[in-house]
Amino acid sequence: MKRPIALAILSVSNIVGTAVGFIMPPLFVENDALDDKIRAEFTGLLITEFVFSLLPLILVILWFREKPLTPANPSSELENMGYLTGIKVLFRDRRFLGLLFSFGTIMGSFCVFGSILDNILDCYGFTSDEVSYLAAGMMITGIVSAGVFGLYI
Q1: Is 80 exceeded by the pLDDT of residue 71?
Q2: pLDDT (mean) for 116-140
Q3: Do the beta carbons of residue 139 and residue 15 sit within 8 Å?
Q4: Is 132 exposed, middle or buried (0-12, 13-18, 19+ CB in 10 A)?
Q5: Contacts of 3 (CB under 8 A, 6+ apart)
Q6: How far apart are alpha carbons 58 and 136 in whole angstroms?
Q7: Residue 16 neighbours by CB distance under 10 Å
Q8: In the chain, helix, strand, coil percent, each to 5?
């Protein structure tokens, strides 16, 4: 029962992290700043994002063991087949290819939409800051909607 809960938490944290990524640029970089000021603000943004990414890595390195004390599931006791062999087996499996295609299409569409949203809404008078907050709001709304919908399934 712990594994599905952990996967759900990690899936939501992926989306929340992306929403934070939409919110952070307007907090660090001004739209009307001069080139040198924008460069300094953008550098500050990148350093901040680096630190936010580095902290969990350090925690994982310090606290995670090589193996759990007890096996996570029955298949974890089986001998592993090696990375390249496993990749070859996966790409011969039609179910995996279907999952890869459907998930890749969804994630690709989502990332493209997030990337071009500023260009789409620019002609309607939205600023980059407003577009960033709108994208983050859409993501948070999606999380809440998925949670509410999940109660009925």
Answers
A1: no
A2: 86
A3: yes
A4: buried
A5: 72, 73
A6: 27
A7: 14
A8: 80, 0, 20
